[in-house]
Amino acid sequence: MTQTPRYTPLVQSLPATVPFVGPETAERASGHPFTARLGANESAFGPSPRAITAMAAAAREVWMYGDPENHDLRVALAAHHGVTPDHIVVGEGIDGLLGYLVRLVVEPGDAVVTSGGAYPTFNFHVAGYGGVLHKVPYTGNHEDPEALLARASEVQPKLLYIANPDNPMGSHHPGAVIADMVTRLPEGVLMVLDEAYIDLAPPGTEAQIDADDPRVIRFRTFSKGYGMAGLRVGYAIAAPGLISAFNKVRNHFGMGRIAQAGALAALADQDWLAHVRTEVSAARARLADIARANGLTSLPSATNFLTIDCGANGDFARAVVRELAARGVFIRMPFVAPHDRCIRVSCGPATMLETFAAALPEALAAARG
Amino acid sequence: MTQTPRYTPLVQSLPATVPFVGPETAERASGHPFTARLGANESAFGPSPRAITAMAAAAREVWMYGDPENHDLRVALAAHHGVTPDHIVVGEGIDGLLGYLVRLVVEPGDAVVTSGGAYPTFNFHVAGYGGVLHKVPYTGNHEDPEALLARASEVQPKLLYIANPDNPMGSHHPGAVIADMVTRLPEGVLMVLDEAYIDLAPPGTEAQIDADDPRVIRFRTFSKGYGMAGLRVGYAIAAPGLISAFNKVRNHFGMGRIAQAGALAALADQDWLAHVRTEVSAARARLADIARANGLTSLPSATNFLTIDCGANGDFARAVVRELAARGVFIRMPFVAPHDRCIRVSCGPATMLETFAAALPEALAAARG
What we know:
GO molecular function, one term (chains A, B): histidinol-phosphate transaminase activity
Organism (chains A, B): Gemmobacter lutimaris
Largest sheet of chain A: 7 strands, mixed
Number of helices of chain A: 13
CATH architecture of the largest domain in chain A: 3-Layer(aba) Sandwich
Helix content of chain A: 40-55%
Enzyme class (chains A, B): transferase
Largest interface: A-B, 89 and 89 residues
Cofactor (chains A, B): pyridoxal 5'-phosphate
Domain Aminotransferase class I/classII large (chains A, B): 37-360
Oligomer: homodimer
Structural class of chain A: alpha/beta
Shape of chain A: globular
Strand order of the largest sheet of chain A: 2-8-7-6-5-3-4
Order of helices and strands of chain A: HHEHHEHEHEHEHEEEHHHEEHEEH
Number of strands of chain A: 12
CATH class of the largest domain in chain A: Alpha Beta
Distance between the termini of chain A: 55 Å
């Protein structure tokens, strides 16, 4: 008897994975909400008050579909970046846009290059379209441009992924290093430049790349610096030919009315973003102090999180994460060795950081057994 | 020289279509906003006031990602429908969920059956994954269950699409007719039952189908009766095996915080839905009066729109749509003959309907002239 539905062979081969388990899942299991939500690199400093007002106003108008062209937001983003609206596509977070991009170029068996331990949701999409992932190791705590380029020369991938700044290590390359990589890409390779954390990075991290260069697509988001992870608005900047190809596959009405209004207002409030940058900087310093006070070293961060080396192996760091969770503190950690010696703590307001500071010594002691 | 990026052959063959052009595009072109927005079957009666309050409150918490399991909303929907949360997947509107479903089952060359003139966004997804659409004609103003089943027997499709009630004709079949279709599906065929308009349909339209039946997936939305098209929340009810397959491909964090909160509050306010049903019923009657006063006949409607036969061919109806737009009234019309003799006018508050009533005689005269 034929099974119904008849899934594609590719789908049959896929696991029903979830790249990240949400903190709500743990909260439901324990029956206790986290008191410090510092695991998803959300911005507990919140969104711009002007964005909150815009979203609340848009809630009354939510009976209308959002503009499927995302016109006003694209015009504003274009002005912000000094490009044209034809260089910009808006979508359901970077996650959603990465899915569309992979669909546009990856067929079963196609090679894709990334770093072992880099963003798993990108890998989820590549696997989901049957692509073959080739992973190169980090050099220390940095993604390795030379190793990525060398592997690209070997396997001629359709996509080469790099995040700058990096997640989960918080490291970064100067923009000039990234721009140099572009000039050295093997023919036919598209660089996927994930700049989710660029708003929190030091000056000079943003690569100078011609928006008409067909070899690069860069991704930005309102989830991190702008503090609107739960709104689901990301965008990509690329040459108009590639941008228009998204129209072949995207969910045209996927960006809702509140999402577009909120992002537009947030973009207009650059003062708030500057305020968040100041808060993030202070929070990074405080987190580094907390690490030091517990005999741990932290890594330099160009992001809104701090990666802390727990000085032992992955089992130990996983125990620390677990013990912190038991004490109401939600954090995450890198997935692969040797990075999984570390924990990753998001920046947040002082009250959350002090909850972490109070829980960490106990969690370390419990993890040490 | 290799072109970058290297699109898949399937993507290269796809047009950069937009299934529907938004009214904002026309407004930008004309420089005048529509005074009566009656084209997208949105609910200008608005969402539940309780949902508006919930969305405004959630806007302050939008720095947090939404729960990737959509747990609370799925639990509430399960209770509402008398199924379990494992029977429900929530996603970025029915459009987004249809895309995931097609991806799960359709490979290039796979057959899919639908009706000529039925929902074009479903066709967009099928074409987007290389499926081959087999279209049967409506019988009069109804999708034709017998013809759909007969074609399914011939081509053994992976999917058979039917909407009940139907868009764009507004017709419906009794639920028993749909339930009977399920029992007669050829082996291996999954019925895609689009019930976007079911909240506005007469009693008995909802088919009694066991949620564990692997032959059917039914789609519902908060865009129509609940008045939240711009929030982008749809859901599907199906057997747990199929529901869990969505986890292989979906954008896990695609449902934002405001979207989940708004849908949850809207679902809890069934009184508002009952109020909208009353308003829709009155608006349908008023629209039918307006049609009659202009010498036109309207079709029976089980939806939140009225389909009006303009009594001539598609060119004439297209001219009526154009002339109404020039007078500030946004409506749409069926795409294919012979349905394109009609226009399709959404229900709305009295002020919008009276704007339509005032513009229609002039538009008809201009179209005739």
